[in-house]
Structures
1.
Amino acid sequence: MRICVFLSAADLDDRYTRPARDFARLLGKGGHTLVWGGSDVGLMKVVADGVEEAGGRLVGVSVDFLAAKARPGVDDMVIARNLAERKKLLLEKADAVVIMVGGTGTLDEATEILELKKHGRTDKPVVLLNTAGFYDGLREQFRRMEDEGFLPRPLAELVHFAAEPAGALAYLEESFDGR
């Protein structure tokens, strides 16, 4: 399975890097391919390192203004012209999506895939890895959207919340097998 991971490129605390590394190792050991933003810095580097060390493949999609931070020596690297093209390519190259901790770029990517699912434009499984409760507030906001009629589909059809890396990958593998 080609798993797109949306996540931060920032250098982060161990409470975030350790679970990300654990997920990456599981992904690599499972024979899966990481599709990610291509950066060789911060949490993006942690995940790429973990996948590579565990024998997985790396497919990066960077963007022209960040190309200097792109990871060398990957299985496949594409440099997009802009962020919109990057998101499109990331999703085209993936069978499933995992949303890890991140900032506004990660949130933008997350809402794009959920909007596509909401309108039936994709059926790719999406997992939000809620490391250290990072997305508790977002989950509450999504529940409010659902409760007050802003989502035409049940939240559970759009995204699966997982607290731990193993649960995130298990959900993806189960969903993918059923496709």
2.
Amino acid sequence: MEPLHNRLFPAPGMGELRSLDRQNPVLRLTPMESAVGSLVVAGTVRAVWEGPGYSTGSISAGEFRPEDLDGVQVQAPGNRPLVGYEDDLALVPLRHVRMLRRALFFPKPKQPMSVGVYNGKSVTIPAQAGHRSYYALSVIRIDDVLELRAEELPYGMEFKAIWEAFGFTMTTRLPYQGR
């Protein structure tokens, strides 16, 4: 049977677009780009993800502090977070991409985001979508490939309202009860 990514609607690849915007809102990585190295997203302030078993979490950019985590942190083998930050760079380790269902990245105010992969290819998401809107970056795993989408959002929406609009419900963390 033909792989699923060959049966999807045609979408441009990482080397075919310079930016994701209204005219070109979607691109699809190749299976190799979706599996090697890390997906690096620069210019973000917060990320939200959905992992195995529909577990969800969200964290702010910068140094990890447990109090900044909403939901749960999904740990991939090797004790790496499924979606995490190294200083201001959001990272998705692609070796374990099959654990990721989807992720959403929010830009720093009025700044563009950029996405890069191991082979040096990158794409930019503009800072502004319209007079009263901006773009968030949606990353969706379809079988063994990642699809990137520029999602237009109105200014002023709270993170929680956006999560709910995209169907994210934060997983409840249970308090630690040692023996």
3.
Amino acid sequence: MKMKTYLKSLWARHLGNKQDRTAMINVASLVINALIGIGKLILGIYLLSGWFITNAVYYLILCVAKGQVLQQYKVAKRMESPQERYTLELTVYKRGGLFLCFLGISYSIVCLRMYLIGDAFIYSGIIVYVVATVAFTKLAFAIYGTWANRHLHNPIMSTLKMINFTDAMVSIVVTQATLLTMQASPLALKTSSLFGMGCSALFCLMGVWMMFHKNKDSNREQGSATNEQGDE
């Protein structure tokens, strides 16, 4: 009985809040992406592969972006003033837009290299299904996170949703290239790289929108931030 009570109190303290649960899921995602980025960087240096190195740069920028958002979320939770808290959250949101532009630019370089040189690494065998499963899982989590947190008008949570959407779309591009290559499509890399460049342009547009759009909604968002602090 005591153990059950302890577990309930532990859940309420660390995971009782929906935003805290979202943050914890993103911490796990951050660790996975960091391992992928470091692994690709090591392979790129070992194999002297520009493909792996440019991919590693994208993943490491993604990790830095998500890491700083999660760190600022912890700082914001400790703030007692709703106005100061919202000011910090809005700063994180705008900075997240800048990181999103960096992600778009870095991934466009990856796709441009794939289009011009065609030196993409194509997976084979059972790894193909692992890559596809990871890609669609990321997309499912991104869609679920957006739907589950649709009523939370919190700039930091919105930033995490944008970053997760970006990560999911990149995984879909990789999956498309792999599946088309398996089918011996002569234009597999060309079409996938063009799709990837289109996604990169979308990421940059999303980043610019984040950097400039929220000023219009500051009064509404600040009120929402106050209400969310009260719910905690």
4.
Amino acid sequence: MPRRSFDGGTVGEKPFALLVVDDSRSTAAKLVQSLTPEGFVLRVVPPAPEVPGLASEVDLVILCLGPETPADLSLVRRFMDVEAPGRGAPVLVVAPQEARATRLEVLRLGMEVVAEPWDTEELRARIHRCFSNHHTLSTLAAQVMELQHLSVLDGLTQLHNHRYFQERLREEFRRAQRYDDALCLILLDLDFFKDVNDRYGHPVGDTVLVEVARILQQSVRETDIVARYGGEEFAVLLPRTHLAGAITVAERVWKGVASQPMGEGGALRMTASLGVSGFPHRTVLTPEQLLLTADEALYRAKREGRNRVCLHSPIPLHSASRGWESKRVDEK
């Protein structure tokens, strides 16, 4: 049986599935009689704590209320927890004609309601309005999520943008302080990138930035935050990572950039300077200080000749990295 759309057309090959929640079954029987000719498939179940979980499996829930108003409304509220657009089905409440207070409260909760005994045409119209409203809300929710997603991404590299990085830096620093955990930050700047733009043009420079972004993403964990900090500068935030682990990541990125042919025909070779800082440390008490110390390490790498990784100094290192202050790609 073809599935009907809101305007009377068909959608796919499946009919709309309706979940009827009714304790007495008497209302459910009348619903079956009214709605089966419409092509709906009805599943009837008694009220139970697990019933709201079934909302994701159907297109509409019809909740039949009896005289036990407080208990019934608690079930209505449980359905609201799964009714968010994209998560569950819309809910239509059927309540007795004499239960005016109940019907008004359901309307205040934002759900569609119909009085029993109902007019069949009105019932069908309200069901289709449920479908239409839910479809509209789901579409809007998807669009909002897409806009939120785009608002935190850099358009060229598809990495997180500067604003998102700043927000996550503050969040992760607060979390690290609260749980006495480690947090490291790597800042990367491409060496002589301006020369690439001047000599080869900005389109080639853009392909270099995209390639570096790919190397960064392949070099970190899913829980790490990689962002385009600005221009040819990138940031990598490493939650629950000590300096030894951050150094390993920095070296991996640094070598990856130096070894990857870039530009048209792979004729370009790029290098990068990286600065690393970490928390906890006596000189890093705020997220701003973590950023500042990583920036200082980055500029020290630039001053010392570029194409290297430098740590914020002085930073007490773990034994695995003790004595590691600055290292060039060409060192063995």
